[in-house]
Design a protein that fits this description.
microtubule binding, disordered C terminus, 52% helix, alpha+beta, three-stranded antiparallel β-sheet, 19 strands, cytoplasm, disordered N terminus, ATP binding, Kinesin-like_fam, flat
């Protein structure tokens, strides 16, 4: 029971107050400190009459707050450290988690208390003094092996940033790596991307602290010309272990500098800084919500997840931690109300109970070593008892012996027979495995006997049937194509006959035309090419695909389909548009070619004129050197004439070039139009072709038997015994 009591410490959060010395122009507020009261000191703040709105009867005039200890304006940094941080640091060295956090409005001395001032060595704050104290204690204690790491987290506008990342040279806060919160199944908080930097001595730790401080986000508000607008958490991680022991102690000390707690109206800021102030107030509001929830009895849900800071300080507030808070107060007249608000917050924090547990865990590597030693000792003991040296695996002779024993046991019909292999677990396990193998082997052999020699289906027969099905489908497809073409030829024939009747042509002429049409039909139905069974198999992979779709058939149409498309294209409404556009395009190409030649001529002419001007310059310069005269200084009329010609040629060039560009745009437009019409025509053909194919499948095609024509497919195929590609 004593050990359990020593491993857990239950206590409320210790709350201290520190009053900031007044500035030169600040008016002192009325307050009194009573240190005599036991066990707590009390602070009484009196609100002056001018702040109580004309002193209404129900308005309080004085407020009294109790603290563990109150540090007045004259208190030195070392006294503050000895009272507040030193006890927490001692607990951390013993294996408990600890937290020290400062809370108060901007300019009340939070950063001075936590980090310290830069002017004098004696102004060092809690963080550098704690580092110094911890490393001093670690050097004195030689009974344990200690490792120390530090991390520095900044929370600005609800985003976490790692201030100690060695890989980043931060000119802006956004350059630093962003820290995100992750929660495991046991609801433990883990900070992703927050680096842990090892510090073997005080100097290394202070260098890391300095690096973090230089990366901190500093901005200006009227309250303080260099006030921190972010929450900062400096954490010291200590792990200790006695030599030879498997037990390891891990503890951490959070030193927290919160952002200013003043109201947004009082900061006198707008825009970017107003956003900061809102985030800070929201973050502190969530902190207050957590503290109120913890102070209430029988409260099941604590809203830790509302903000990043409350998530990080989860253990520090009502968890496994020894926590101390210092409320920093600026008790001048202007800031009385904010100071009272800070004191109220501190009183709520003082109600929270924490349960600090000694953080001990077993080092797995040492545990493995110990277990291996224990196994070896047990093996040695077993060898002494049995008188036999025990190896990890059974020998081949032992395995054969066990197999014979199992088989004898299974063959024995005596129900009282036993299988005795001795008190060796390895032998017992092997016997069970061997019995299982024998049982499985017998089951499979029984199944084979029951099933007998069932004749297997011939795989070749199945393959042949599949080939036959594919051939039938391909024949059906070709049949449809031929029937569509025959129907088209009939329509062509009818058109030709109507035209002949209208022209009152002679009967002989019409007969000739009819004969030629029939010959054409006969030619089209004759097998222009034959293909073998192998070719059919090659084609069968494309069954169910429409042959005219170029994207599906690698850009190729079947011959029948091509002929049908040519006739369809000729009769299509848009064919005239295509021809007109082609003619226009040809005309524009000719114009462009002509203009291009003219432009080249003009360009050559301009270059020639420029050359003449240059030559003229050289001649005049030579004359000026050999025989200087005033005439040479005057404007050269020949050069002026040449320049005028160049200007005219340039104007001509510009006119032609603008026309050239216009023609180029027109040509591109015409090409696009032609392409669009072609695509539309192909799409229309595809729709028509698929409809024709469907109609043929629904209606059984009639056999065309005319005295002047041959019998149409499929009878034609029977007679010729060939597959028509058309």
């Amino acid at each position: 029971a004593k050990a359990a009591g020593a491993a857990m410490v239950k206590e409320t959060i210790r709350v201290y107050a520190r009053v900031k010395p007044l500035g030169r122009r600040q008016q002192a507020g009325s307050y009194s400190v009573d240190v005599e009261e036991e066990p707590l000191s009390s602070l009484e703040i009196t609100v002056p009459r001018d702040l109580t709105d004309g002193f209404v009867n129900n308005k309080r005039e004085s407020y009294k707050f109790k603290f563990q200890k109150i540090f007045d304006q004259e208190a030195k940094q070392d006294v503050v450290f000895d009272s507040i941080a030193k006890p927490v640091a001692e607990c951390v060295l013993a294996g408990y988690n600890g937290t020290v956090f400062a809370y108060g409005q901007t300019g009340s001395g939070k950063t001075f208390t936590i980090t310290g001032g830069a002017e004098r060595y004696s102004d060092r704050g809690i963080i550098p003094r704690t580092l110094s104290y911890i490393f001093d204690q670690l050097q004195k204690d030689s009974s344990k092996v200690y490792t120390t790491h530090v991390s520095y987290l900044e929370i600005y506008n609800e985003c976490g940033y790692d201030l100690l990342d060695p890989r980043h040279e931060a000119s802006r806060l956004e350059d630093l790596p962003k820290v995100t919160i992750m929660e495991d199944s046991d609801q433990n908080i883990h900070l992703k991307n927050l680096s842990l930097q090892q510090a073997t001595n005080e100097e290394e730790a202070l260098n890391l602290l300095f690096l973090g401080d230089t990366n901190r986000m500093i901005a200006e508000t009227p309250m303080n010309q260099a006030s921190s607008r972010s929450h900062c958490i400096f954490t010291i991680h200590i792990s200790s272990k006695e030599p030879g022991s498997a037990t390891m102690r891990r503890s951490k000390l959070h030193l927290v500098d919160l952002a200013g707690s003043e109201r947004v109206a009082k900061t006198g800021v707008g825009g970017h800084l107003l956003t900061e102030a809102k985030y800070i107030n929201l973050s502190l509001h969530y902190l207050e919500q957590v503290i109120i929830a913890l102070a209430e009895k029988n409260r099941s849900h604590i809203p830790y997840r509302n903000s990043m800071m409350t998530s990080v300080l989860r253990d520090s507030l009502g968890g496994n931690c020894m926590t101390t808070m210092i409320a920093t107060l600026a008790l001048d007249k202007r800031n009385i109300e904010e100071s009272i608000s800070t004191c109220r917050f501190a009183q709520r924090v003082a109600l929270i109970k924490n349960e600090a547990v000694l953080n001990e865990e077993i080092d797995p590597r040492l545990m493995i070593v110990q277990l291996k030693k224990e196994i070896q000792d047990l093996k040695d003991e077993l060898e002494l008892v049995t008188g036999k040296q025990r190896t990890s695996e059974l020998s081949q002779e032992e395995l054969l012996q066990l197999e014979n024993l199992v088989e004898t046991f299974l063959k024995d019909n005596d129900p009282d027979s036993t299988l005795d292999v001795g008190a060796d677990m390895r032998k017992i396990k092997y016997c069970f495995v061997h019995m299982k193998q024998l049982m499985n082997h017998r089951r499979t052999s029984d199944k084979k006997l029951v099933s007998g020699d069932i004749p297997e289906e011939d795989s070749n027969k199945e393959a042949e049937e599949e080939d036959m099905e594919k051939l039938k489908e391909l024949l059906q497809q070709r049949d449809n194509e031929i029937n569509i073409l025959v129907n088209m030829l009939k329509k062509e024939k009818k058109k030709a006959q109507d035209a002949l009747f209208q022209l009152n042509a002679t009967s002989a002429g019409s007969t000739v035309l009819e004969q030629s049409l029939y010959i054409n039909l006969e030619d089209r139905q004759s097998p222009s090419s034959c293909f073998s069974l192998k070719e059919v198999k090659d084609f069968s992979s494309s069954v169910h695909r429409l042959p005219f779709l170029s994207r599906q058939t690698g850009g190729k149409m079947s011959l029948g389909c091509q002929e049908a498309f040519e006739i369809f294209q000729r009769d299509h409404v848009d064919s005239i548009t295509i021809e007109d556009n082609k003619g226009l395009l040809k005309q524009r190409f000719a114009e462009v070619k002509c203009l291009g030649e003219k432009l080249n001529e003009v360009r050559s002419k301009i270059n020639h004129l420029k050359g003449e001007i240059t030559q003229r310059h050289i001649q005049r310069a030579a004359l000026a050197v050999s025989s200087p005269s005033e005439e040479l200084n005057m404007i050269d009329p020949v050069e002026e004439k040449l320049r005028m010609q160049i200007e005219e040629e340039k104007k001509s060039y510009e006119t032609m070039f603008s026309r050239f560009k216009g023609l180029k745009v027109e040509i591109e437009h015409l090409q696009l139009l032609i392409e669009k019409v072609k695509r539309k025509m192909q799409k229309d053909f595809e729709v028509w072709w698929s409809e024709e194919a469907k109609n043929l499948q629904q209606e059984k095609p009639e056999m065309v038997t005319s005295p002047n024509t041959v019998i149409v497919y499929p009878q034609f195929i029977k007679s010729s015994q060939h597959l028509s590609t058309n």
